[in-house]
Amino acid sequence: MDGHPSAPPGPPGKREKTKAKNRHAILEAARHVFADLGYGATTVRDIIRATPLASGTFYNYFRSKEEIFQAIQDESALRIRPRLREERTKAETVEAFIFGTFRTFFEYVADDRQSFRAIRRNTDALRVRMDTPQIIAGFEELREDLETAIGKGLFPPLDADFLMAAIVGVAFELAERMLRRDDTDPASAAAFATALFLGGVRALSNREAPAVNGHCGA
Amino acid sequence: MDGHPSAPPGPPGKREKTKAKNRHAILEAARHVFADLGYGATTVRDIIRATPLASGTFYNYFRSKEEIFQAIQDESALRIRPRLREERTKAETVEAFIFGTFRTFFEYVADDRQSFRAIRRNTDALRVRMDTPQIIAGFEELREDLETAIGKGLFPPLDADFLMAAIVGVAFELAERMLRRDDTDPASAAAFATALFLGGVRALSNREAPAVNGHCGA
DNA sequence: CGCCAAGTTGACGTATCGTCATTGAACGCT
DNA sequence: AGCGTTCAATGACGATACGTCAACTTGGCG
User: Fold this and answer.
1) B57 pLDDT above the threshold of 70
2) What digits encode the pLDDT tens for the residues A30-44?
3) Which residue pairs from A75-79 have beta carbons closer than 8 angstroms and sit at least 24 positions apart in sequence?
4) Exposure string over B75-103, b if 16+ CB within 10 A, otherwise e
5) Of all helices (H) and strands (E), which one includes residue A128?
6) Best mean pLDDT range from B12-16, B66-70, B120-124, B191-195
7) Which of A122, A136, A166 sits opposite B196 (nearest CB)?
8) C1’ C7 / CA A60, Å
9) A207 near B196, Cβ under 8 Å?
10) Looking at the complex, does the CB of residue B47 fall below 8 Å from at least one CB of chain A?
């Protein structure tokens, strides 16, 4: 076994290093070009032209424009997902669960706005959103966490699928609006979303099991 | 004046009719091809091949693949927007405003699912959403209606921009989930979204003017 | 130092793009 | 109806981007 130095034992070796550097250079160039031209107008050649590499090299790293676009998104998703998961796992109240999720997400978006913008700009008046496998996996994680929280009695017994969808929808749309404002303020966006869902969850649980009693605050 | 028969006075004339028929044929073909191949994989040639027309003709009607895609979406948007507007204008309660909006939207989506699906399917595991000018205009309409409703005292004084974004986000994500389920049920999706926002709006208004009293139910 | 494996290069064949000169049909006037 | 004008359809054509591949360069290793 271990004939290939696929693991990190020895020093990286020049080959490995160049490979990583090239991949990174291509990704970085792609982020800029997508942000400049929009996804639709960008060509693989535009990307490779923004690096010192040759056109054929691109295809050693990615199979198509679509695939590198996915890779950019997946990278973001893999960076944010563990943080979100941690917030939710350690949450001991509904409020902590919801507020932690939104705050973490909005702060990340504000931080990494370059990736986020690159992703959403297409042509002048055309917004795009693509959900890659890693992003969709993030949605599923949220659904699982909601189901767990419901199982633990933290959340009332709601439709976890719909609730996940609602959270996702609000998160992305509010993020968009937040970035559009002059003073990007993740905290206030998170506060808005949290209040919305705290009230919403309470109303939903009253609906599904109506007329128990007037228990109002948490 | 009226040298050109641009308005509907005389009978349509054969030129006009063929033009409308061709445009319609191309749009119809595009809907099918987009649904079959996904937006990314579709070429203008694929679309025109699905009609009896020649390749050059396509460019008499649309400038690009992107533009015809927009046209399909805009058509949907123009069909649904008046209905939404009417619902909201005649609403005399917050509940009517919200429920009317969601029910109308979900029923439309369930009806016109072919367009909706065509729009969202790209490759196997890649979801896409594009917001065209007409769709974005629909968002703005919603924001205006919210502002009007706030002005009338129907809604509490909230951030209309964020609220609009939240409604839009929930509407699109829930629509997606709804279509994915075996029994597409607009009414129950609308009920879910309505309960969420009724509770959410109440909580948000308490937040902005906190500590009034413990009034819980409506 | 020399050999093998891995990776890069850019030219090449293919496919789609968008244009445009040509053609034929609809229109309106007599 | 006959006739000249206008307008849209056609499909061939040059331009552009795609993805591949044989030749070449470089790192790894005895």
Assistant:
1) yes
2) 999 988 888 888 999
3) A75/A27, A75/A115, A76/A112, A76/A115, A76/A116, A77/A132, A77/A134, A77/A135, A77/A137, A77/A138, A78/A134, A79/A108, A79/A112
4) bbbeebbeebbebbeebeebeebbbbbbb
5) strand A126-131
6) B191-195
7) A166
8) 9
9) no
10) no
Q: Count of residues for chain A?
A: 218
Q: What is the pLDDT of residues A66-77, one digit of tens each?
A: 899 999 999 999
Check if B140 contacts A (Cβ < 8 Å): no
Nearest to A104 by CA among A68, A72, A145, A157: A145
Q: Kindly give, in sequence order, each residue whose CB lies less than 8 Å from that of residue B10, ignoring residues fewer than 6 positions away.
A: none
Does pLDDT of A172 surpass 50? yes
* Chain D bases closer than 7 A to any CB of the protein: 7-12, 16-22, 26-29
Residue B218: the pLDDT is 40
Residue with tokens 């500590």: B211
Q: C-alpha angle A131/A137/A142, rounded to 5°? A: 110
Residues A150/A157, Cβ–Cβ less than 8 Å = yes
Residues in chain B: 218
How many Å is the Cα radius of gyration of chain A? 21
Alpha-carbon torsion angle A6, A8, A12, A13, nearest 10: -40
β-pairing verdict for B121-123 and A126-131: unpaired
Could you tell me the pLDDT band of residue A115, with boundaries at 50, 70 and 90? confident
Rg (CA), chain B: 21
CB B98 within 8 A of CB A93: no
Contacts of residue B201, defined as CB under 8 A and 6 or more positions apart, other chains included, come to: A196, A199, B94, B98, B155, B156, B158, B163
The partner residues of A127 in beta bridges, in order of sequence, read A121, B131
Residue ranges near strand C (C-beta within 7 Å): A 15, 18-19, 22, 52-57, 60; B 5, 13-16, 18, 43-45, 55-56, 59, 63-65
Cβ-contact B118, B36 below 8 angstroms: no
- Give the global pTM: 0.87
**Strand ordering across the sheet containing A121-123:** A121-123, A126-131, B126-131, B121-123
**How far does CA A184 lie from the centroid of its chain?**
18
Map tokens 């029910």 to a residue. B103
Query: Is the pLDDT confidence value at A141 over 60?
Result: yes
Chain A: give the shortest CA distance to residue B57, in Å: 23
Residue pLDDT, tens place only, A153-168: 999 999 999 999 999 9
User: What chain A residue is nearest to B133 in terms of C-alpha separation?
Assistant: A125
